[in-house]
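queue> pop job 88
queue> type: inverse folding (structure -> sequence)
queue> payload:
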């Protein structure tokens, strides 16, 4: 059974067709890049998967179920915007996540904080923007979830931190789970991807493994993306 599946999925906002007849499948054990230009529908798809939006038509299934309380317990979601309470410390965030999610691994979160030299007693309002993004990702990746939905996880951090974040994603997810990374920084994430989904104008224009693109097209995912979406 696929972990994540869409069948004829559509989403409209008034007269705007954000997603148009999307069909796709994500299997267990895969790290998938959801790739497309700004405004292509990436964030809408991830919000639908997390139950923050409802489809206009079609189906979206997680482990064969429509998004709801049961699926939310299986999904770990990193939004494209920071959502941390400024008055909280990193330790209090760990307490909050541990209370809210049964699958939260406090030891894993603490290990990552210390590896990045982040003081658990530091409050969010004292942190730099980059440190906040690291802390938010640490909380998300410290869950033992079935599906990780990461919306622009490396958008605002320096290159060295990007490498650490990508390594963190790969080392900390359950091999039986799946990871969907939405990003426009393709060259930076390509090294960790198994599969890619190209989306544009709310439509899936390609779903392929990274190996197939390299073997059949003779180029990197980043180069092929630039060719497909050339202005």
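queue> result:
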């Amino acid at each position: 059974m696929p972990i994540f599946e869409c069948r004829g999925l559509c989403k409209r906002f008034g007269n705007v067709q954000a997603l148009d007849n999307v069909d796709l499948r994500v299997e267990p054990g895969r790290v998938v890049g959801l790739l497309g230009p700004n405004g292509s529908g990436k964030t809408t798809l991830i919000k639908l998967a997390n139950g923050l939006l409802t489809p206009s038509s079609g189906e979206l299934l997680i482990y064969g179920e429509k998004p709801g309380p049961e699926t939310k317990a299986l999904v770990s979601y990193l939004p494209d915007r920071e959502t941390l309470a400024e008055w909280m410390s990193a330790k209090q965030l760990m307490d909050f996540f541990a209370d809210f999610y049964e699958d939260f691994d406090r030891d894993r979160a603490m290990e990552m904080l210390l590896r990045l030299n982040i003081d658990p007693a530091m409050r969010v309002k004292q942190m730099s923007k980059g440190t906040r993004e690291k802390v938010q990702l640490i909380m998300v990746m410290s869950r033992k979830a079935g599906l990780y939905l990461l919306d622009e996880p490396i958008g605002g951090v320096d290159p060295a931190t990007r490498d650490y974040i990508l390594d963190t994603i790969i080392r900390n997810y359950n091999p039986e789970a799946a990871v969907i990374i939405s990003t426009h920084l393709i060259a930076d994430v390509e090294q960790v991807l198994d599969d890619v989904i190209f989306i544009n104008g709310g439509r899936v224009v390609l779903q392929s493994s990274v190996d197939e693109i390299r073997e059949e097209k003779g180029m990197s995912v980043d180069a092929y993306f630039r060719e497909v979406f050339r202005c």
